[in-house]
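Comment thread on ticket #2218

A.B. wrote:
> Attaching the input chain for the structure job we discussed in standup.
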Amino acid sequence: MIARLFWVALAAGAAAGAFASLAQAVGTWPLIAEAELYEAGHADEAADTARALWSVAFNLLAGLGFALLANAGMLLARAYRPVALDWRAGAILGLAGFVAFAFAPAMGIAPALPGMAEGELAARQAWWIATAAATLGGIAALAGAAGARWRIAGVVVLALPHLIGAPEGTLGLVDLFARAEPVTEMGLPADVARGFALASLAAAAAFWAALGLASSWLQRRLLPI
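C.D. wrote:
> Ran it. Output below, let me know if you need it in another format.
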């Protein structure tokens, strides 16, 4: 069972990483190159190629890690109650992952281009992790709610990181879209930063959609209970 779970996660993670890399190649990598023109004043093709290769490698590794967690969770849920492993189950899994690990954190800390002020790294990391965990917990509470108390608790947990607020010096999606002035000292336009944030979220959506749908399909075939 464990070996088959690993192969399911490996295949689903590879699909997710490939889809995310394709979306980034179209959406985010050109904007990163444009932002670096503002910072350095010239293009660096070698650096662009190296960044693309490292991004693909990271996407594949992240795909494997998230796929292991998602498929282990799905398998555990199936052990407690029947789950129809159709495209709907995959879509729900993908949507939950996207909201928890991309959309909810971006509301406080939007994906940022090189040179953008982002606040203290440790504080950003702590808030991001807490937001992802709280969002997953809130979604789980709402999904398995057996009464009003659980539903209320789920909503409170979902809202808590945003009520506390992201660390000082960061830009959330709402703030970013309300900004008119450049986002860096070198004059990077806010429109470029907004385009990057949206393209990053689109890549994350591609990642989680592929991971969820592939996981559901592969579990149905390789991990019967």
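A.B. wrote:
> Thanks. Noting for the ticket: The chain is about 80% helix and 0% strand.
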